[in-house]
Amino acid sequence: MSREAERQSNRIDRFFAGPGARADQWCRLMEMADAWSNGTGERAAFEAALAEMAPTEEFHAYPGLQLIDRLREYSTANDAHAAATLTRRVTRAILTRSFRQSQSDWDVHDEGEAVAPSSLHPALTRTEAHRPYFEVLIVTSAPAARWLVLASEWRRLRRPLDPFIYEPVIVGSFEDAFCAAVLNTDLAAVVIHEGFAFRSRHDAPILRTLAEAADQRETPDVSALHLAQALKRVRPELDLYLLSNGHVEDIAGSANAKAVRRVFYAVEELLELHLAILEGVQDRYDTPFFNNLKKYAQRPIGTFHALPIARGKSIFKSDWIRDMGEFYGLNLFLAESSATTGGLDSLLEPTGNIKKAQQMAARAFGADHVFFVTNGTSTSNKMAVQALLAPGDIAIVDRNCHKSHHYGMVLAGAQPLYVEAFPMTEYSMYGAVPLRTIKQALLNLKAEGRLHRAKMLDLTNCTFDGHIYNTRRVMEECLAIKPDLIFLWDEAWFGFARFSPFLRPRTAMGAASDIETWLRDPMALVQYEKQRAELGENPSDDVLLKTRLVPDPRKVKLRVYQTHSTHKSMSALRQGSMLLVKDVEFHSVEAQFHEAVFTHASTSPNQQLIASLDVARRQMELEGYGLVHNAIEVALDIRQAVAKHPLISRYFHILGADKMVPEQYRESGFSDFLDAKTNWAVTHRSMRDDEFCLDPTRMTLVCGTAGFDGTQFKGLLAERYNIQLNKTSRNSVLLQSNINNTRSDVAHLIRVLVTIANEIDQRLTQGGPHVRQAFEARVKSLMTDVPDLPNFSHFHAAFRKDAGKQTNEGDIRGGFYAAYNPEGCEYIRLRDPEIDKRLKNGPDLVSANFVIPYPPGFPIMVPGQVITQETIDFMRKLDVKEIHGYDAAEGLKLVRADALAKRAEPVKKRVA
Ligand SMILES: Cc1ncc(COP(=O)(O)O)c(C=O)c1O
User: Fold this and answer.
1) Average pLDDT of the chain, as a whole number
2) Which of 460, 565, 698 to mutate to test the pocket of ligand 1 (most atoms within 8 A of CB)?
């Protein structure tokens, strides 16, 4: 392998290479073909590039063996013009994806020029009903010389009635099948014939590294079932079919056959197989609720219930609001209804197509049950907290979590035991909570004989800024201390992660499934017993904190919940959210969940929202893998472009893992996606093993070095350049790539950053010394004069009547309702010297409500919390305008000392 090839194969973005990287390769080939054709380039360069691409091109149906052979023939015949024409045609077809619908793209004899692709949005150009297209991987023992014939046999099975159209992709080995599953995002099904080889027929190191990175090393086991399991691990959504000439009954009965959709006896069954493939895809394509809603919308229904907007007559007949109808289109109003019968279903008590849609979502997201929620994850979180916690239960909670959890605790009467994430003071944000802190909290509760009251661990994965927990490790180690602990993972931002093989093991459901497998393995008990023997009868806390704890598989009750904002990372309408359940004790809390649904869900849930959840699930099951690949690729493109642009990088930079995750939590030694020394193996190890890793799609762009605070920069991008961002910190903004982004979006962002950097540069060069001094002072103030982040102090004793000594849980609900008594509350302005006097001499300043500044967006005060000097210093330094729960004119709302004393009285009496 040449040095250049070696460098390329180790480059980190190849690890995540998706459709964009392939399109780039074709564009480069096109440039080489053009250069050769117009005399500015060499045939050899074209041939070398084609040879380098050829092995991975075999994993895609288009352009296919015949067109690639045709390119080789033109090259051998030294026909530069024909090679350039065909390369252009293929490249255009790949870029515009036209080969999915256009037969002429496949034509080996069409020597014509490519027609320029339409630049119109697909929604505007579609004229006829189109059949969705996918590809099927055929793993065969047939010699490569027969593959063309095999492919045409498959194509002969097509019928005009088929709802979908697919193309076969043929490979002959375990390695090639594995790599094709990773690289070909169009695959929807795999047919495995027994008897294939292990090694690829190509000696392409890039393929081997890819396979090895996912632990697929050479092994004597080349059975179809082994391959099926390997493929399922990468892409669980693929339908797998197994063809055998042997004992199909034995195979079908094997425990490992779970990964396979159907087992067929030999090749005579080709038509059956074809129908099974279509049925398998139909199964994922089906959207029970959306389908019914569409049917409902077409029925001539007279409505005598509320919701005049339904059917749209009040809109379209009106002179005054018709524009609303014209804007949204008739279908929206035809599909509006408050009915729960007549083909629709009730979200509150689903028995029909909503129930089915939820079951399909459970399959797609790896859960046992799913609840659709139409008021955002804010509601999903409150539902989970209410259903799982009773008054007095203790929940270990990241203090930095979304406010819905805090409010959930207030509603449930549960006692939050706040744990702190590691601070990232320079950027005014928090990371995630170290496992050691969580274990310490559990061990403290145990020491005080209060572990039985700790019901739940409630964490955010990934955090707003992209810190991903090692979910499996967290759950296993906590279960080693408390085997029935419930886990609530708020994956508001991370729902898409299910569809990336790199991220899935770090999701709540991915890790729960791995733990489930481990619990079934007889080796689990052996591992547990071994550790128990090593640790002895009563290991010290210190030893327990240092050890990677193994739970007792006989005692573990796996109880995992996940919430996600489907609307944040998938194609659901705003507020579409899901609550996922994988809980062996679910039967014992199911009734409570129904109560939680009744408490929080509207009795008039929006039909379009429910339909969009159904459709978002369909999309992710059929194309989520490719879309997520693309989102990651786009993020890596942005990271690269910002880092390497001389002007942008003078003022802006995106924080790497080395800046976002302290070294002690990156045991793999991984530093950043862009680090020249980083290769696939290290990245893979980091994603698998590190205590925290970074979601590549969430990028913290530091703008303080360009003289902007986060809010200011966000406003500038929105107002002047039509670029919208989400979160800001004092000196940074958060960029996020998602399944919607294209490379044109990246180009726009980079261009805007260049423009802004250019303006700063000009201002500094032309403005003279005082402008430069002012700029430097501003940068210093944003980047170095940052306030320390205040930790949670403690609840006031009046709200800790039954709390432990070493643990900081408290009665947040008591604190919250203290604010309902106006006589028991007082206000003091932030700058009033009274604050400083009280901090020094007492009585305690006790917050009567939540105070949540945006940014950073976490509560610096919760009801009942004692306010410390740290918190006041932080607030006084804060220069943000939006602070929920605080009105600068009124001041801080506090619980008065006499009201606190009254609350504490019964305790005093009891003690006396
Ligand atoms: C971690 C986290 N959880 C929950 C939510 C609430 O989600 P939703 O906006 O879907 O109500 C958010 C919103 O930003 C969040 O960041």
Assistant:
1) 89
2) 565
